[in-house]
Amino acid sequence: MNAYWQGVWAYVYSLTKDPFVTDDLTQDVFVRAYTNLDQFRNESSYKTWLFSIARNRCKDFQKSALFRRVVPVDIHRTQVFASEYMSAEDEAVRSIERNEWWKAILTLKKPYREVVILHLREDMTFAEIATVLGIPEVTARVRYRRALQQLRAGFISEVNSHEI
Amino acid sequence: MRFEEKLRNEIKNLPVRGLTDDKQQAVLEQIRKTDRRRLSLRGLSSVVAASGAVVIILIGMTIINQNAHHRSPLPLWTTATVENSVLNTPSFRNAVQAYLETHPDAGFSSATIPSAGTNNPEVTNTVPSQHVPTTVKDLAVRWSQLDGKFGYAFVSFRRDQSDHVATVVAQQEPNLQWTVLQLSDSGPLPHAYISKFPIYNVEASAGGTPSYFMVCGIIVDPNITRVQITWPDGYKNEAQVANGVYGYVKIYPTSVNSGVGPKSIEAFTADGQMVYHQ
C-alpha cells in the first residue's frame, strides 16, 4: 500500500479532479484490490492490475448521480461560503489545486491526461498502459504524443505571455 | 533539457496526498470487515475455523467501535428507525428493492431524467464497466410524498459494502401495487467528502407524466432542523426534515418545463442560525 498509494492517488485525481473524492476512491481501490486478490492471475503486473481497478472504480463513480449533478456545485459554492469548514488538511488540498503543473495536466482531455500520468509519473511502458486502459498499444502512443503536443503548446504560450 | 524530460521531472514532483495513519487505518479496517465476512463463511465448515472467525469478529468489532465516528460520519446511517414517511410501507419498499436488484446500474444514466453529464464528453465517452448482480440491504424510505397515484421518495440502502441513496418516483397501480418509474442511484457515497458539509444535496427532475423537480439531501449536521428551498421565481418552500434527510418535490403541470432547479437551499438550526447556503 505504501509503495503504490501516491501513484494511485495521482492517477485517480487526474480522472476525478477532486482531491476529497480522490481520497475516498483511493482507499476503496486498495480495499477492492485486497478483496479481489484471488482474481489476480499474474497475466499482468500487480501494478497494472491495481491501476486497472482504480480506473474501473473511477468510471463507476463518474456515472453516479452525485458526481454528475451535485458535487461540482457543492465544491464551488460551499468553499466560497463555508470557510469555517476549511481545515489544515484542506489547505494542503489547496496547494494541490493551485499547482500550475496539475492545472496544465487537468486541462487535457481525460484520455490524454491518464496516459501522461501513467507514462511520466508511473514510468509505465505503452504496453502496460494499453493493458490498464484496455486499448491497443499504438493508441496509447498516439494519445501520449498528442498530450505532449498540447502541453508543449500551452507551455510555449505561457512563456510568450510572460515575455510580453 | 528536452521538454519531455522537464515535464517528466515536474510530473514526478507533483504534490499529492500521502498515505496518512488515518487513511491506512481506514483501509485496514475495511479489509478486516471483509476478512471477518469471509472467515465467518468458511468457519461453517469446521469448528476450528469457526473459533478463529469468532476471535477475529470480536477483535474487529472492538476496533470498529473504537473508530465508529470515523467509519460512519453520517447520522443517516445511525438512525435506527424511520418515521413520518408516508411511503415507508412493505409494498413500496418491495417494489423499490426489486427494482434496485434488477437494475444494478440504476444511476442517472439509466433513468429518463436528463443528466447534466450529457454535455460532458468525458462522461458520455466512458465505457460501461461490468456489473455483477448484487443484493440490496437495509433499504429505508427516509422521506416520501404522495401526489395522487404518484409517489416520490428518497431512500437509503447498502449495496455490497457501500452506502447509497436514491431518488425514486413510482406509480400506484389499480391493484395498489407500486411500479417504479424512475430511480436514480447516487452510487457509493463518499463519506469522507460528504462529511465536510452540513447537508449534501441530490436533485432529480423529469418532464412528461409526472413532471417534477425533487430536491433531497443528507443532513450531516445533526443540529439542522429546517431546510428552506427558494425557487428562481422567488417562491420559498420548507423541506421536510426527518430520518437524517430532507426532501421536497415541486410538481409541475405536464406541459411546463420542470428542469429548472432551486435558486438556493438554506439550512437552519433550531435557534434560527443559518449554517448552510447554496
Which key phrases capture this entry?
heterodimer; A: 164 residues; mainly alpha; Rna Polymerase Sigma Factor, Chain: A; Arc Repressor Mutant, subunit A; 9 helices; 78% helix; 0% strand; B: 278 residues; alpha+beta; seven-stranded antiparallel sheet; four-stranded antiparallel sheet; 7 helices; globular
CATH homologous superfamily name of the largest domain in chain A? RNA polymerase sigma factor, region 2, helix turn helix motif
Query: Can you give the mean pLDDT of chain A?
Result: 79
What oligomeric state do these chains adopt?
heterodimer
Shape of chain A: globular
Q: How many extended strands of chain B?
A: 11
Largest sheet report of chain B: 7 strands, antiparallel
**Total beta-strand segments of chain A:** 0
Number of helices of chain B: 7
What is the molecular shape of chain B? globular
Estimate the helix proportion of chain A, in percent.
Answer: over 70%
On the 0-100 scale, what is the average pLDDT of chain B? 74
Identify the biggest protein-protein contact and residues per side: A-B, 62 and 60 residues
The helix/strand order of chain B is HHHHHHEEEEHEEEEEEE
List segments of chain A where confidence is low: pLDDT < 50 over at least 5 consecutive residues: 67-85
